[in-house]
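INFO batch 0412 | record 1 of 1 | parsing
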Amino acid sequence: DGMTVEPIPVLLRRYGFHFSSLIAIVVFMVWGYSATLSVLYAMIVAVVLSFIRPEQALWPRRLIETLASGAIQAVGIAAVCASAGIIVGVITLTGLGLKFSDIAIQAAGGSIVVTALYTALIVWVVGLAVPVTASYIICAVVAAPALMKLGVPDYAAHMFVFYYAVLSEVSPPTALSPFAAAAITGAGPYRTTLQAWKYTLPAFLLPFVFVTDPEGVGLLLNFTPSMTWIDVAWQFVLAAAGLAALAAAAQGYGRRIMAAWERVVLALAGLLMIFPALIEHAAADLIPYPHWIGLALALGLLALQRPRPA
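INFO prediction complete | emitting tokens
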């Protein structure tokens, strides 16, 4: 259609200074300013830096138009967050949040794995109707206390809820992000959603690591008294290798297109690497050192795979 697309390095050199406002928010918060003041000062930084390029300078007229546009875009978010605040207030004042925690724990029989599954389902269902921020705010009051009552650290429980609130954006049937991508590219919305869900399925397992495994909190860079940097690095290696194995099994492609049995073996290897603590707890006699077995299975399978001739 005659349109030219400039390379990313050129765009970064020309417009990269706009990222400075995002960096400024972090810098101001590190200096001890509140989130509100940090955003305000970052906005001032953005206005000042706009004068780097004269054609983008925010002179009074353009600044007013920019503020008006931003205010209009914020109305929808403000309405959603206000509604979420009302819901959280009702849940807190009526004690429904604490009652729900007891109900979830009793239904799960006190099992932390089953409780985590219930929590993930709750966040997923809530996330189908509301954006990430509102979904987290609601579920942090409703679902996170159930995990904390079973001994999960508060930061891990809240990260679990936040993680699934983000993943609800790519979960069918109302995945907002794939729908937006489909609208931009002209693709089919539901086919795009299912493809996005397929790509992200292995990531749905990662939060269970730092909820069910005492050493899994190393993925959140939080140390237990017995953990060192080596243990944290090992947790990262196991999680990355396990997710890579599961992703390859889900897509059916390693060094070449895999047969069904190869995908099963690779999926098993990924689960052994991601959940060694659960497997050792459930079947230590049958599967000793599950993480090493998983690594050996994955590496052995990939070593045996040779690209088939065309």
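INFO post-check: The CA atoms of residues 170 and 190 lie 11 Å apart.
INFO record closed
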